[in-house]
Amino acid sequence: MAIREYKPTTAGRRGMSSQDFDGITTKKPLKRLVIIKKGSVGRNNQGQITIRHRGGGAKRYHRIVNFKPEPGTNATVEEIEYDPGRSARLARIKDDKGNHHYILAGKGMKPGRKISVAEDASITRGNRLPLKNIPTGTTIHAVELRPGKGGQLARSAGVGATLVAKEGKYAQVRLPSGEVRMVSIDSTASIGAVGNEQHQNIQLGKAGRKRQLGIRPTVHGKAMNPADHPMGGGEGKTGPGRIPRTPWGKPAIGLKTRSRKANNKLIVRSRHQGKRR
Description:
Helix content is 2%, strand content 26%. It is mainly β.
């Protein structure tokens, strides 16, 4: 995928870039694999705002993606499609039974490619098989955390995890964040990296495109009044001694928010190790 740049005819156009949709082969998705998902505008099931600055945006027709295809499936890629709900492209495949599915389009995937989901599938891009049958050092994506649950790790555009080692019942997978995690060797993964690798280089250029994504304007707490934020108010600029806090008074820097989950023991190397500060 290439990046399309614009001439600086206006201030909003200067520095703006967008996706080049040359790799997409069709514009209309299959109706039976599309759902209209209403935006939650950052609220939970009780109506409380859990994510601030969300609302509005363009209507999105979400595609139903199959992250756990049945073993023994042999399919052919028919089309490469755009999905408004994710950064990666989707591949519309048709299996031997005549059923259509959406899967993540891997890097270099084009219409006509054959895809196999089996334990003895070949190590070629797009095929899906258990980690115990994948050689170490292979780039993979859509990795299962638990066998049969479906791909959960490494699903964004351009990313790919690496199978580092296999020992006993577990395999070590290095994620795009740098974290090394143990995963069951019976978990499945797709070979290769996710396509649309140039997505991270897109520049929105103006605030209007941000609003189309459903993200409302954000104001930092220091510019607010004391009644609206713990860091608001004050005569002039406050010094560096003030501790950055959230709107609810909790420290915003250095506070660990990850709970003590049972799967923490499966993390071999944290994503924070070895990074420069």
